[in-house]
């Protein structure tokens, strides 16, 4: 059964800064600390990047890791990602939408997975 989940947040910062920081995949271990232990860039070509995320061990010592592809479209204000190594999922697709609002940038995450 496929599931769709959406989250959003309003970030009080300039659009270019929000875009640059949130799309600097190599720095996600710092940005999403303490959840991510490491992010390793495997390959990048143009606006598409393949990377491995390794999460910190859970309370039972299990470590989750996976590889994803992410394509960034700054002009459209959107990124699209899909897990290459799906792990326990049949599929996982993620879309991030960036929208300028008077108070800042609304970043919306849409997850689809099964």
How large is the radius of gyration?
15 Å
Distance between the termini: 6 Å
The structural class is mainly beta
Mean model confidence by pLDDT = 95
Portion in helices: 10-25%
Summarize the structure in short.
This protein is mainly beta and 114 residues long. The protein has two helices and seven strands; from the N terminus they run βααββββββ.
Topology:
Elements: E1 3-11, H1 15-22, H2 28-31, E2 36-45, E3 48-55, E4 65-73, E5 78-83, E6 92-101, E7 104-113
Antiparallel strand pairs: 1-7, 2-3, 3-4, 4-5, 5-6, 6-7
What can you see in these coordinates?
- The protein has two helices and seven strands; from the N terminus they run βααββββββ.
- By secondary structure, it is mainly β.
- A seven-stranded antiparallel β-sheet has the order 1-7-6-5-4-3-2.
- A hairpin with an 8-residue loop joins strand 5 and strand 6.
- The chain is globular, with a radius of gyration of 15 Å.
Highlighted features:
single chain; 114 residues; mainly beta; seven-stranded antiparallel sheet; 7 strands; globular
